[in-house]
Write a structure and sequence with these properties.
CATH architecture: 3-Layer(aba) Sandwich
InterPro entries: Epimerase_deHydtase, Lipid_A_modif_metabolic_enz, NAD(P)-bd_dom_sf
Largest sheet: 7 strands, parallel
CATH class: Alpha Beta
Radius of gyration: 20 Å
Oligomer: single chain
Bound molecules: nicotinamide-adenine-dinucleotide, uridine-5'-diphosphate
Strand content: 15-25%
Organism: Alloyangia mangrovi
Protein name: NAD-dependent epimerase/dehydratase family protein
Distance between the termini: 53 Å
Number of helices: 15
Shape: globular
CATH topology: Rossmann fold
Pfam families: Epimerase
Helix content: 40-55%
Protein backbone atom coordinates (compact mmCIF):
# COMPACT_ATOMS: atom_id res chain seq x y z
CA UNK A 1 0.00 0.00 0.00
CA UNK A 2 0.92 3.64 -0.34
CA UNK A 3 0.22 5.19 3.06
CA UNK A 4 0.15 8.89 3.88
CA UNK A 5 0.71 9.66 7.58
CA UNK A 6 0.19 13.22 8.80
CA UNK A 7 1.81 13.92 12.20
CA UNK A 8 4.07 10.89 11.71
CA UNK A 9 6.80 12.27 14.02
CA UNK A 10 4.78 12.20 17.23
CA UNK A 11 4.25 9.51 19.85
CA UNK A 12 1.78 7.31 17.97
CA UNK A 13 3.30 8.10 14.56
CA UNK A 14 6.78 7.05 15.64
CA UNK A 15 5.51 3.68 16.89
CA UNK A 16 3.41 3.16 13.79
CA UNK A 17 6.47 3.81 11.62
CA UNK A 18 8.52 1.35 13.73
CA UNK A 19 5.95 -1.34 13.04
CA UNK A 20 5.10 -0.64 9.41
CA UNK A 21 8.65 -0.08 8.23
CA UNK A 22 9.97 -3.24 9.88
CA UNK A 23 7.15 -5.71 9.18
CA UNK A 24 5.65 -4.60 5.85
CA UNK A 25 6.70 -3.32 2.41
CA UNK A 26 4.24 -0.43 2.49
CA UNK A 27 5.51 2.85 1.06
CA UNK A 28 4.96 5.68 3.52
CA UNK A 29 4.94 9.42 2.90
CA UNK A 30 4.76 11.47 6.09
CA UNK A 31 4.35 15.07 7.19
CA UNK A 32 5.62 16.48 10.48
CA UNK A 33 7.83 19.45 11.36
CA UNK A 34 9.30 17.32 14.17
CA UNK A 35 11.60 14.40 13.42
CA UNK A 36 13.55 13.71 16.62
CA UNK A 37 11.49 10.58 17.44
CA UNK A 38 11.82 9.08 13.96
CA UNK A 39 15.49 9.71 13.13
CA UNK A 40 16.20 6.02 12.62
CA UNK A 41 13.71 5.84 9.74
CA UNK A 42 14.88 8.85 7.75
CA UNK A 43 17.15 6.79 5.48
CA UNK A 44 14.61 4.03 4.87
CA UNK A 45 13.85 3.89 1.12
CA UNK A 46 10.20 3.05 1.91
CA UNK A 47 9.77 6.29 3.87
CA UNK A 48 9.69 9.91 2.71
CA UNK A 49 9.32 12.70 5.26
CA UNK A 50 8.10 16.18 4.42
CA UNK A 51 9.38 18.08 7.42
CA UNK A 52 6.59 20.64 7.28
CA UNK A 53 3.21 21.47 8.75
CA UNK A 54 0.37 20.11 6.61
CA UNK A 55 -1.06 23.63 6.30
CA UNK A 56 2.25 25.07 5.02
CA UNK A 57 1.39 26.64 1.60
CA UNK A 58 4.73 25.37 0.19
CA UNK A 59 3.67 21.75 0.60
CA UNK A 60 0.14 21.78 -0.79
CA UNK A 61 1.00 20.30 -4.20
CA UNK A 62 3.07 17.52 -2.58
CA UNK A 63 0.20 16.75 -0.25
CA UNK A 64 -2.33 16.65 -3.07
CA UNK A 65 -0.06 14.31 -5.09
CA UNK A 66 0.46 12.05 -2.08
CA UNK A 67 -3.28 11.77 -1.39
CA UNK A 68 -4.01 11.20 -5.09
CA UNK A 69 -1.44 8.37 -5.22
CA UNK A 70 -2.20 7.00 -1.75
CA UNK A 71 -4.39 4.10 -0.69
CA UNK A 72 -5.02 5.47 2.76
CA UNK A 73 -4.44 8.71 4.68
CA UNK A 74 -3.86 8.44 8.43
CA UNK A 75 -4.26 11.77 10.20
CA UNK A 76 -2.45 12.00 13.54
CA UNK A 77 -1.48 15.68 13.33
CA UNK A 78 -2.91 17.61 16.25
CA UNK A 79 -2.35 19.66 19.35
CA UNK A 80 -3.58 17.08 21.84
CA UNK A 81 -2.26 18.10 25.21
CA UNK A 82 -4.92 18.97 27.83
CA UNK A 83 -2.80 21.78 29.30
CA UNK A 84 -3.28 23.65 26.01
CA UNK A 85 -7.06 23.22 25.63
CA UNK A 86 -7.91 26.06 28.03
CA UNK A 87 -4.69 28.09 27.69
CA UNK A 88 -4.18 28.01 23.92
CA UNK A 89 -7.75 27.41 22.68
CA UNK A 90 -7.60 29.11 19.28
CA UNK A 91 -4.57 27.08 18.20
CA UNK A 92 -6.24 23.93 19.54
CA UNK A 93 -9.40 24.57 17.51
CA UNK A 94 -7.36 25.47 14.40
CA UNK A 95 -5.14 22.43 14.64
CA UNK A 96 -7.89 19.92 15.36
CA UNK A 97 -10.58 21.31 13.05
CA UNK A 98 -9.63 23.94 10.49
CA UNK A 99 -6.24 22.42 9.55
CA UNK A 100 -7.96 19.06 9.13
CA UNK A 101 -10.76 20.37 6.92
CA UNK A 102 -8.64 20.57 3.70
CA UNK A 103 -7.33 17.04 4.36
CA UNK A 104 -10.87 15.70 4.57
CA UNK A 105 -11.78 17.58 1.38
CA UNK A 106 -8.77 16.11 -0.46
CA UNK A 107 -9.78 12.60 0.62
CA UNK A 108 -13.32 13.27 -0.62
CA UNK A 109 -12.02 14.59 -3.95
CA UNK A 110 -9.89 11.49 -4.57
CA UNK A 111 -12.21 9.09 -2.68
CA UNK A 112 -9.30 7.99 -0.49
CA UNK A 113 -9.75 6.05 2.76
CA UNK A 114 -9.23 8.41 5.69
CA UNK A 115 -8.26 7.01 9.08
CA UNK A 116 -9.03 9.97 11.28
CA UNK A 117 -7.56 10.04 14.79
CA UNK A 118 -10.16 11.41 17.11
CA UNK A 119 -10.38 11.07 20.89
CA UNK A 120 -12.32 9.46 23.70
CA UNK A 121 -13.10 13.06 24.69
CA UNK A 122 -15.74 12.86 21.98
CA UNK A 123 -17.80 11.40 24.82
CA UNK A 124 -16.97 14.29 27.17
CA UNK A 125 -17.97 13.49 30.74
CA UNK A 126 -20.07 10.51 31.76
CA UNK A 127 -23.80 10.67 32.34
CA UNK A 128 -23.03 9.33 35.84
CA UNK A 129 -21.04 12.44 36.66
CA UNK A 130 -23.90 14.69 35.58
CA UNK A 131 -26.53 12.87 37.63
CA UNK A 132 -24.14 12.79 40.60
CA UNK A 133 -23.73 8.99 40.66
CA UNK A 134 -20.13 8.89 41.89
CA UNK A 135 -20.45 5.22 42.81
CA UNK A 136 -20.94 4.39 39.11
CA UNK A 137 -23.56 1.75 39.79
CA UNK A 138 -25.15 1.74 36.35
CA UNK A 139 -22.81 0.89 33.43
CA UNK A 140 -25.35 2.40 31.02
CA UNK A 141 -24.45 5.78 32.53
CA UNK A 142 -20.68 5.51 32.13
CA UNK A 143 -19.68 2.88 29.54
CA UNK A 144 -18.61 4.50 26.28
CA UNK A 145 -20.20 2.93 23.18
CA UNK A 146 -19.18 4.25 19.79
CA UNK A 147 -22.62 4.38 18.23
CA UNK A 148 -24.79 5.03 21.25
CA UNK A 149 -23.17 7.22 23.89
CA UNK A 150 -23.94 10.95 23.71
CA UNK A 151 -21.39 13.74 24.02
CA UNK A 152 -21.73 15.67 27.26
CA UNK A 153 -19.50 18.58 27.95
CA UNK A 154 -19.40 21.71 30.02
CA UNK A 155 -20.14 25.32 29.04
CA UNK A 156 -17.95 27.46 26.77
CA UNK A 157 -16.29 29.14 29.75
CA UNK A 158 -14.78 25.74 30.48
CA UNK A 159 -12.38 25.83 27.57
CA UNK A 160 -11.17 22.32 28.30
CA UNK A 161 -13.73 21.23 25.74
CA UNK A 162 -12.26 23.12 22.75
CA UNK A 163 -10.38 19.97 21.75
CA UNK A 164 -13.31 17.60 22.21
CA UNK A 165 -15.56 19.95 20.25
CA UNK A 166 -13.10 20.30 17.35
CA UNK A 167 -12.53 16.53 17.17
CA UNK A 168 -16.26 15.86 17.33
CA UNK A 169 -16.87 18.31 14.46
CA UNK A 170 -14.30 16.48 12.33
CA UNK A 171 -15.97 13.16 13.13
CA UNK A 172 -19.29 14.61 11.98
CA UNK A 173 -17.76 16.12 8.84
CA UNK A 174 -16.14 12.81 7.92
CA UNK A 175 -19.34 10.89 8.59
CA UNK A 176 -21.41 13.37 6.56
CA UNK A 177 -19.05 12.94 3.59
CA UNK A 178 -19.28 9.17 4.02
CA UNK A 179 -23.06 9.33 3.81
CA UNK A 180 -23.32 11.95 1.06
CA UNK A 181 -20.24 11.26 -1.07
CA UNK A 182 -19.21 7.72 -0.18
CA UNK A 183 -15.96 8.78 1.56
CA UNK A 184 -14.32 5.62 2.98
CA UNK A 185 -13.43 6.39 6.60
CA UNK A 186 -12.41 4.97 9.95
CA UNK A 187 -12.49 7.01 13.13
CA UNK A 188 -10.12 5.96 15.93
CA UNK A 189 -10.89 7.06 19.49
CA UNK A 190 -7.74 6.35 21.53
CA UNK A 191 -8.09 5.87 25.27
CA UNK A 192 -4.81 6.83 26.93
CA UNK A 193 -2.11 5.02 24.97
CA UNK A 194 1.08 4.76 27.10
CA UNK A 195 4.59 3.87 25.94
CA UNK A 196 8.13 5.03 25.28
CA UNK A 197 8.58 8.42 23.58
CA UNK A 198 5.26 9.83 24.83
CA UNK A 199 5.52 13.63 24.98
CA UNK A 200 8.66 15.09 26.61
CA UNK A 201 10.18 15.41 30.05
CA UNK A 202 9.76 18.95 31.43
CA UNK A 203 13.06 20.78 32.05
CA UNK A 204 14.88 18.18 29.92
CA UNK A 205 13.56 18.24 26.38
CA UNK A 206 10.50 20.45 26.57
CA UNK A 207 8.74 23.12 28.56
CA UNK A 208 5.18 23.17 29.77
CA UNK A 209 2.80 20.54 31.06
CA UNK A 210 2.74 17.26 29.11
CA UNK A 211 0.20 14.45 29.57
CA UNK A 212 0.06 12.64 32.89
CA UNK A 213 2.59 9.88 32.11
CA UNK A 214 5.33 12.41 31.33
CA UNK A 215 4.26 14.68 34.21
CA UNK A 216 4.65 11.90 36.78
CA UNK A 217 7.80 10.56 35.11
CA UNK A 218 9.29 14.06 34.97
CA UNK A 219 8.59 14.55 38.67
CA UNK A 220 10.41 11.30 39.53
CA UNK A 221 13.38 12.16 37.30
CA UNK A 222 13.65 15.81 38.35
CA UNK A 223 13.16 15.28 42.08
CA UNK A 224 9.89 17.22 42.19
CA UNK A 225 6.72 15.97 43.93
CA UNK A 226 4.13 14.15 41.81
CA UNK A 227 1.02 16.32 41.62
CA UNK A 228 -2.53 15.00 41.82
CA UNK A 229 -5.01 17.32 40.17
CA UNK A 230 -8.14 17.69 42.31
CA UNK A 231 -7.14 14.77 44.50
CA UNK A 232 -6.42 12.38 41.60
CA UNK A 233 -9.91 10.88 41.58
CA UNK A 234 -10.30 10.97 37.77
CA UNK A 235 -10.15 7.51 36.23
CA UNK A 236 -8.47 6.44 33.02
CA UNK A 237 -7.94 3.12 31.26
CA UNK A 238 -4.39 2.70 29.98
CA UNK A 239 -3.46 0.67 26.90
CA UNK A 240 -0.01 -0.27 25.66
CA UNK A 241 1.11 1.66 22.56
CA UNK A 242 2.23 -1.66 21.02
CA UNK A 243 -1.27 -3.11 21.27
CA UNK A 244 -2.76 0.15 20.03
CA UNK A 245 -0.49 -0.09 16.97
CA UNK A 246 -1.72 -3.70 16.51
CA UNK A 247 -5.24 -2.31 16.26
CA UNK A 248 -4.22 0.19 13.57
CA UNK A 249 -2.41 -2.55 11.62
CA UNK A 250 -5.52 -4.74 11.80
CA UNK A 251 -7.50 -1.87 10.28
CA UNK A 252 -4.94 -1.51 7.48
CA UNK A 253 -5.07 -5.27 6.85
CA UNK A 254 -8.89 -5.34 6.81
CA UNK A 255 -10.13 -2.20 5.07
CA UNK A 256 -13.52 -3.72 4.33
CA UNK A 257 -14.11 -4.32 8.05
CA UNK A 258 -12.68 -1.02 9.27
CA UNK A 259 -14.42 1.16 6.71
CA UNK A 260 -17.46 3.09 7.90
CA UNK A 261 -16.82 2.71 11.65
CA UNK A 262 -15.62 4.55 14.73
CA UNK A 263 -13.56 2.36 17.08
CA UNK A 264 -12.72 2.75 20.76
CA UNK A 265 -9.13 1.60 21.28
CA UNK A 266 -8.50 1.06 24.98
CA UNK A 267 -7.99 -1.58 27.66
CA UNK A 268 -10.94 -2.07 30.03
CA UNK A 269 -8.82 -4.10 32.46
CA UNK A 270 -6.28 -1.34 33.07
CA UNK A 271 -8.47 1.19 34.83
CA UNK A 272 -6.90 3.35 37.57
CA UNK A 273 -7.56 6.60 39.36
CA UNK A 274 -4.76 9.12 38.92
CA UNK A 275 -3.95 8.68 42.63
CA UNK A 276 -3.52 4.93 42.03
CA UNK A 277 -1.44 5.60 38.93
CA UNK A 278 0.94 7.90 40.86
CA UNK A 279 1.37 5.26 43.56
CA UNK A 280 1.92 2.48 41.03
CA UNK A 281 4.47 4.59 39.16
CA UNK A 282 6.53 5.39 42.25
CA UNK A 283 6.54 1.69 43.21
CA UNK A 284 7.53 0.72 39.67
CA UNK A 285 10.34 3.29 39.77
CA UNK A 286 11.60 1.81 43.04
CA UNK A 287 11.83 -1.54 41.21
CA UNK A 288 13.60 -0.06 38.18
CA UNK A 289 16.18 1.87 40.20
CA UNK A 290 16.54 -0.68 43.01
CA UNK A 291 16.00 2.24 45.41
CA UNK A 292 13.17 1.36 47.82
CA UNK A 293 12.85 4.96 49.01
CA UNK A 294 10.92 5.77 45.80
CA UNK A 295 8.02 3.73 47.23
CA UNK A 296 7.27 6.70 49.49
CA UNK A 297 8.06 9.39 46.92
CA UNK A 298 6.19 12.64 47.72
CA UNK A 299 2.76 13.04 46.14
CA UNK A 300 0.90 16.31 46.69
CA UNK A 301 -2.58 17.54 45.77
CA UNK A 302 -3.15 20.64 43.65
CA UNK A 303 -6.33 22.25 42.37
CA UNK A 304 -7.12 22.09 38.65
CA UNK A 305 -7.08 25.88 38.50
CA UNK A 306 -3.61 26.00 40.05
CA UNK A 307 -2.30 23.29 37.72
CA UNK A 308 -4.03 24.07 34.41
CA UNK A 309 -5.44 27.58 34.93
CA UNK A 310 -8.97 28.82 34.46
CA UNK A 311 -11.47 26.83 32.41
CA UNK A 312 -10.27 23.27 33.02
CA UNK A 313 -12.90 20.60 33.50
CA UNK A 314 -12.04 16.92 33.72
CA UNK A 315 -13.36 13.78 32.08
CA UNK A 316 -14.31 11.78 35.17
CA UNK A 317 -14.11 8.27 33.72
CA UNK A 318 -13.42 6.60 30.38
CA UNK A 319 -14.50 2.97 30.30
CA UNK A 320 -14.63 1.90 26.65
CA UNK A 321 -16.89 -0.71 25.17
CA UNK A 322 -14.45 -2.42 22.79
CA UNK A 323 -16.76 -5.08 21.39
CA UNK A 324 -16.64 -3.51 17.92
CA UNK A 325 -12.84 -3.74 17.74
CA UNK A 326 -13.07 -7.31 19.04
CA UNK A 327 -15.75 -8.46 16.60
CA UNK A 328 -14.65 -6.65 13.45
CA UNK A 329 -10.86 -6.61 13.89
CA UNK A 330 -10.29 -9.52 16.30
CA UNK A 331 -8.43 -7.05 18.54
CA UNK A 332 -8.30 -7.50 22.29
CA UNK A 333 -5.56 -5.91 24.42
CA UNK A 334 -3.88 -8.09 27.02
CA UNK A 335 -0.85 -6.25 28.44
CA UNK A 336 -1.42 -5.44 32.11
CA UNK A 337 -0.85 -1.92 33.40
CA UNK A 338 2.05 -3.06 35.60
CA UNK A 339 3.88 -4.34 32.50
CA UNK A 340 3.05 -1.25 30.43
CA UNK A 341 4.54 0.93 33.18
CA UNK A 342 7.61 -1.24 33.71
CA UNK A 343 8.49 -1.14 30.01
CA UNK A 344 7.67 2.53 29.54
CA UNK A 345 9.33 3.81 32.70
CA UNK A 346 12.45 1.72 32.05
CA UNK A 347 12.72 3.47 28.69
CA UNK A 348 12.39 6.92 30.29
CA UNK A 349 14.85 6.01 33.03
CA UNK A 350 17.46 4.76 30.55
CA UNK A 351 16.94 7.74 28.29
CA UNK A 352 16.93 10.53 30.86
CA UNK A 353 18.23 9.50 34.29
CA UNK A 354 21.86 9.97 33.30
CA UNK A 355 21.29 13.48 31.98
CA UNK A 356 21.23 16.27 34.56
CA UNK A 357 18.43 18.78 34.58
CA UNK A 358 19.41 22.36 33.66
CA UNK A 359 19.26 23.67 37.26
CA UNK A 360 21.82 21.07 38.34
CA UNK A 361 24.11 21.95 35.46
CA UNK A 362 23.99 25.64 36.46
CA UNK A 363 24.90 24.93 40.11
P1 LIG B 1 1.76 13.80 19.51
O1 LIG B 1 1.59 15.21 19.99
O2 LIG B 1 2.84 12.98 20.08
O3 LIG B 1 1.92 13.79 17.94
C1 LIG B 1 1.26 14.69 17.09
C2 LIG B 1 2.26 15.06 15.99
O4 LIG B 1 1.57 15.92 15.07
C3 LIG B 1 3.47 15.87 16.51
O5 LIG B 1 4.67 15.24 16.13
C4 LIG B 1 3.32 17.24 15.86
O6 LIG B 1 4.57 17.82 15.52
C5 LIG B 1 2.50 16.89 14.63
N1 LIG B 1 1.74 18.02 14.11
C6 LIG B 1 0.99 18.91 14.79
N2 LIG B 1 0.44 19.78 13.94
C7 LIG B 1 0.86 19.43 12.70
C8 LIG B 1 0.61 19.95 11.40
N3 LIG B 1 -0.17 21.02 11.20
N4 LIG B 1 1.20 19.34 10.36
C9 LIG B 1 2.00 18.24 10.54
N5 LIG B 1 2.25 17.71 11.73
C10 LIG B 1 1.68 18.30 12.80
O7 LIG B 1 0.33 13.09 19.73
P2 LIG B 1 -0.04 11.54 19.68
O8 LIG B 1 -0.19 11.05 21.06
O9 LIG B 1 0.87 10.83 18.74
O10 LIG B 1 -1.51 11.62 19.08
C11 LIG B 1 -1.78 11.46 17.70
C12 LIG B 1 -3.29 11.59 17.47
O11 LIG B 1 -4.03 10.73 18.34
C13 LIG B 1 -3.83 13.00 17.72
O12 LIG B 1 -4.80 13.28 16.75
C14 LIG B 1 -4.48 12.92 19.07
O13 LIG B 1 -5.54 13.84 19.21
C15 LIG B 1 -4.98 11.48 19.09
N6 LIG B 1 -5.08 10.96 20.47
C16 LIG B 1 -4.02 10.38 21.09
C17 LIG B 1 -4.16 9.88 22.37
C18 LIG B 1 -3.05 9.16 23.07
O14 LIG B 1 -3.31 8.45 24.04
N7 LIG B 1 -1.81 9.29 22.62
C19 LIG B 1 -5.38 10.00 23.05
C20 LIG B 1 -6.44 10.64 22.41
C21 LIG B 1 -6.28 11.10 21.11
N1 LIG C 1 -3.11 14.78 35.98
C1 LIG C 1 -2.61 14.79 37.28
N2 LIG C 1 -1.32 15.20 37.48
C2 LIG C 1 -0.51 15.59 36.48
C3 LIG C 1 -1.01 15.57 35.15
C4 LIG C 1 -2.32 15.17 34.93
O1 LIG C 1 -3.30 14.43 38.25
O2 LIG C 1 0.65 15.92 36.75
C5 LIG C 1 -4.48 14.27 35.73
C6 LIG C 1 -5.40 15.14 34.86
O3 LIG C 1 -6.04 16.12 35.65
C7 LIG C 1 -6.36 14.10 34.33
C8 LIG C 1 -5.49 12.85 34.15
O4 LIG C 1 -4.33 13.08 34.97
O5 LIG C 1 -7.34 13.82 35.30
C9 LIG C 1 -5.06 12.52 32.73
O6 LIG C 1 -4.47 13.65 32.15
P1 LIG C 1 -3.74 13.65 30.75
O7 LIG C 1 -3.03 14.96 30.64
O8 LIG C 1 -2.89 12.46 30.57
O9 LIG C 1 -4.86 13.65 29.63
P2 LIG C 1 -6.35 13.15 29.51
O10 LIG C 1 -6.39 11.70 29.89
O11 LIG C 1 -7.19 14.01 30.42
O12 LIG C 1 -6.66 13.37 28.08
Amino acid sequence: MNIVILGCGGFIGSHLLDRLLTTTDHKIIGWDPESSKIQKHLDNPNFTLHQRYVDDPETQQDLRDAVANGDVVINLAAICNPSEYNTNPISVIKSNLFDVYPIVELCVEYKRWLISFSTSECYGRTLSSYVGDTSYENPDLYELKEDETPLIMGPIVNQRWTYACAKQMVERLVYAHHKEDGLPFTVVRPLNFFGPRMDYIPQRDGDGVPRVLACFMGALLNGDPMKLVDGGKARRTIVSIYEAVDAICRMLDNPEKANGHAFNIGNRNNEVTMAELADLMRKTYAKITGDASYEDYPIIEVSAEEFYGEGYEDCDRRMPDISKAKELLGWEPKIALEDVLLDTMTYFHNEYAGSMKPAQVAE
